[in-house]
Predict the 3D structure of the following.
Amino acid sequence: MAESTKSLARIFVPLAILAAVGLLIAWPIISGKTPGSQATSQQQPAEQPGTQPSTTETEPTAEPEQPTVEGEQPPIATETPQDSSDTGTQAPAVTPAYRVLPAPVETYARIGGVDPETHALEITFSVLGAGIERIELAGYKRRLGSADPVPVQEIHSQQLASGVTKRIVPFAATAVEIDSVSVPVYIAYDEQGVGQPAWSQIEPGRFQATIADADGTPVVRLERHYQADGTSHDFTFTQTAENLTDQPMDVRWITFGPSQLYKESQGYGGDVRRVRFGYVEPGSPHYVVGGDYLKSIASVSGPRDKQTLLYPETMELWPTPRAQKDNLHLAWAGVTNRYFGVAVHGVAAGQPTPGAAPLLTPIERVSRVLLDPGVKTNDPNYVLGLEFTSPQYEVSPGQSSTHAMGIYSGPLARDLIAANPSAHAVMLRDLVQYTMGGPCAVCTFPWLAHILIWLLNHIHDWLTHDWALAIIVLVLIVRTVLHPVTKWSQIRVQRFSHQMQQMAPKQKKIQEKYKGDPKRMQAEMAKLWREEGINPAGMLGCLPMFLQTPVWIALWASLYFAIQLRHEPAFFGVFQQIGGWPFLADLSQPDAAITLPAAMQFKLPLMGLVTSINLLPLLLGIVFFIQQKYMMPPPSATMTPEQQSQQKMMKVMMVVMFPIFMYNAPSGLALYFIANSTLGIVEMRYIRAHIDKNDLLTPKQRDPGKKTFMQRLIERAQERQEMMQAARGQGPVKGPTSGALGARRKKTENRRKGRR
């Protein structure tokens, strides 16, 4: 028993802590084995309406059409893209009940700009369904040192083996159902059956199309209006259907939503691009739940057919089974990557409950569509987009049906999202989630991570004005706050370990003497513990260390997702002043002390793609080597060979494995680990000096006449029980008749006799 307890206290507990932290650190790398990297995206300028693609629509309600636009050969929007081909440029011979009329070919004006002094974003529109060709953010660059703004939305294209080019065009209108008849509005056909743009520009951001019946008589006028000036990351989008007939009709919109964002990080962290929903429960109309639906783009692919090796081309994501069961109402839907997000949300206008959180009533169903269902989720050409289906609206003769929604396209910064009233009203700030997902999702404590980020911002803005220094100061503050717990824990752990070492020879004699009688051995061990004054609760001294772990994990996750560190140099950019040295030029990426040429880059297990020689992981290994000298006791003569082997394994894990895990980690995270470990060494030296100075390894001798808390508690319980028995007349009171306890018992007995 003594040897196993000793092993638990000195070997197993630190090993368990180390293994748990190692798993949490390694998980992003393990999950990164299936990165859904950005698919090949081809931007087609709006000035060239001839390059029109087929959509990935899955509503098989219309005949496939493969015309060309202005002499171009790629097929245009089809309701069933799997039936598309690159042959034929004429519309089908069968005359449809409704068709969208061609519009004049023109150049669409852009909205906004990429100058951060005057704009927040720039929107480029596409002639395909009056969708968005590209949204670029002002003030954010795609790569450090690049002049290219961050594209949070762009057209994704894929050329299939058949020669068909398919595209997902964000927010493009693909079809409108009129009395349950689907009418493609992605493009139009002229009298010769040649594809033409269907939408004409009324003003920048405002587009109009007309649907006619089989005789060519206009029956519906459609309008899509992006009400934006480019000065805000949040803008309003409305869709209008006007009934031009003398009969009522039912209208339903089918459009693309946002497409997946590009993969912000390479290597460490895996693919953290996600599909997100926010919803309102019936009993809480003012509160939007936005943190519990957090799915990676790979996890929403659905099952892969074993025969065809294809994913379902479309799959409904909302409403979920729980949403249908509990009558949850959609408030927003979007996609995010590590630092940016695009979400569609409800707006206050026309909401059924004034004062409540705006609902996304123009969207009834949300599905995910794939550009190519045959591409695996870990393939760079895997592309996912969202598809929105509206409710069915009844439009009276001569009347219009207009429905509005908001679109947020910008960085994942809670203060910036909250600055937009429309986004703030639906609590879109919950787009910002500091968690990696997987097994460590439940222990990152997002509420704590938000507090740490808030504190980090204030340290930077009011004290250091440098993010690397702010990280170090933040670690110092956290360790200072947790110091009393750490000190209490370490004193008890080391005291218990010291006592077990002193008692080891006696335990060994008992084990040898009673090795054939386990029960007697256990009884003698317990007696020895009582005689030596060893409290078994000393084994629980490591418990506070486990309680601190969520704090450090929350800090780790918050630093990984903190957009404040993106493209920010460390220590005021001092290393960049040395001939442009890229060392620590970007705290969101590895430190890149020596950048490797493309021909010398390579991949390694657990490390991913190595593009540079990084110094911080090597420094981290040195710090861990020094730290383990203080974390682990030296091998003793009483340790078994197995225990010594375990101790050596722990040292190898700390000194070798952790730097490997962290090799491609963002340099901000590496600085955090180095600062935390260094301060931990200083703190441990202080605690050990305090222990030696006050001789805390030897328990204080208790006064034999002074009763412990547990003894007093047991005595009071016995006293109360005997008093209750005496009051019920269950016999004479037994026990002492003198002293305070005897006096109380006599008093109780006299009261009982008096009642008789």
